Amino acid sequence: MKPISVLWRGVFALALLLYFANDPALAQSPQETAAQRQQTQPYNNAPVWREVRKEGQEHFTTTRGREAGVLIQTYGQTWRELRNSWIVPIAGWLIIAFACAIGLFYWGRGPIKVREGPTGRLIHRFTPLERGTHWTMAISFCLLGISGLITMAGKYVLLPVIGYTLFSWLAEIAKTLHNFLGPVFLASAVVFIVLYIKDMLPRRYDFTWFLKGGGMLTGEHIPSGKFNAGEKLWFWGGVVVLAFVVCVSGLILDFPNFDQSRLVMIIASITHSVAAGFMIALSFFHIYMGSIGVEGAYEGMRYGYVDESWAKEHHAFWYEDVKSGRIQAGSAEGTPEAPRLAPASRDST
Ligand code: HEM
Fold first, then answer.
1. 134 C-alpha to center of ligand 1: Å?
2. What are the CB-based long-range contacts (under 8 Å, 24+) for 109-112?
3. Distance 230 CA to ligand 1 centre (A)
4. How many domains does the chain have?
């Protein structure tokens, strides 16, 4: 290397050294830099917070407990973003879309009626225990759905309308109700599954029912057992799978005293709101069919009896099993509720 270039490089390096040696910032210790920052930008301790935030590191604390030393956990922001910008709006619009679809279906198709009209002869369909379990599960689910939606989306939908005071009361009541009703729903769903599972097993004729879309659009009555394939799908998909996911994730959130980490709580919260959003939307179809969508269905779950013509048209194979004595269903004679359910025949006599 030529002597002149060695000289230049030397001079340049020296100049650099002198420059940095004289740069007040570099010369300062971190404490001095922080003290100066308090003058120029009071309360801005960004470097400290960056350090604290680094990958959710544990720092020293006298507080006891899992992650007590983690002041900031980075994926908390991700959870908040995911929940507020994705889950809440998508679940909200899904529920609204399902409600509108059912409204359109009712407007277009109307309730499914019993063509032959009631015979006045009643068949026993559900025992008091089966009905009691269903309604405990149904009512607790509906209250959980409403209180859950208030907690999840109330601040976007209700708060601007009813104001802070009323909304804070409502949110507090909804949260408390939700925390206590969760275990009630779980217990009733478990009993419901035990009581109903024997009639929910898939049969060959269920595939025909599916292939024909249950005759929903054609008006054709597709023969089925005690429950048709659509009802069995709601049982397995809704009550067994979705309710299980909603309940397990809900219990993790409801009882945070098992040393759960923040990540476990975040995963439980996302799973809970996504599964609950789906279940609420799907339950609308069942509630519609079970209330005004199928004439005579509600009375079956309310009083335990259905008219023979209803059974013949909607559950032909079950009706045949009852009539042939293969299934002990019993009839209405001598039971207190029976007379209330046969308006047509009473009037016709
Ligand atoms: C609150 C509104 C509800 C009404 C009016 C209602 C009505 C009914 C009726 C009438 C039946 C008997 C159908 C038949 O005889 O074939 C039934 C059955 C059933 N319900 Fe509900 N129900 C409601 C809520 C729920 C909820 C929230 C769930 C689940 C969490 C549920 C789960 C079931 C299941 C699995 C069956 C048996 C299969 C079926 O028919 O779909 N119900 N319900």
1. 7
2. 109/216, 109/217, 111/292, 111/293, 111/294, 111/295, 112/219, 112/293, 112/294, 112/295
3. 12
4. 2
